[in-house]
Design a protein that fits this description.
about 140 residues; mainly alpha; TerB-like; two-stranded parallel ribbon; two-stranded parallel sheet
């Protein structure tokens, strides 16, 4: 298993909201994205103390992540509210982890312009370095 991303409940909710936005960005939720989302769900640990190395917390899991995505739709019914919430993620580790998880899902197939815009916006507001012109990167310009 890849290294787990330890997030607080509010960070996990923002991750879920951003996943929802990305899934909806190109209007298609593909089988590769579903598989990547399932993989991501087993790498997210929601904890009260993200700096703790072992607090008995276990991975979120696919069913719970889908429930979080539904919860995020209620908590952030508009893109503006989700964007405002994204500014509340202040831990550098959470920012980098969330961005990496989002990238993993969208990179599972062709990255649409809408998906790229969301990732680029997050990288900018969270002051993350993102690689450009990755070898083999596929971007849908339509």
């Amino acid at each position: 298993m890849d290294e787990a991303e330890r997030l607080t409940a509010s960070e996990a909710l923002i991750l879920a909201g951003l996943l929802r936005q990305l899934i909806r960005a190109d209007g298609h939720f593909t089988d590769p994205e579903r598989l990547a989302l399932a993989h991501v769900s087993h790498r997210v640990i929601v904890t009260l103390d993200p700096s703790a190395t072992s607090d008995g917390a276990s991975p979120l899991g696919e069913e719970a992540l889908y429930a979080k995505i539904d919860e995020a739709a209620q908590a952030y019914p508009s893109e503006a509210e989700l964007r405002k919430a994204a500014f509340t993620v202040t831990r550098p580790e959470a920012r980098a982890g969330i961005h990496a998880l989002l990238f993993e899902v969208v990179a599972s197939d062709t990255i649409s312009v809408g998906e790229a815009r969301v990732l680029d916006w997050l990288a900018e507001i969270w002051e993350l370095e993102t690689p450009r012109d990755l070898e083999g990167e596929k971007t849908d310009v339509g």
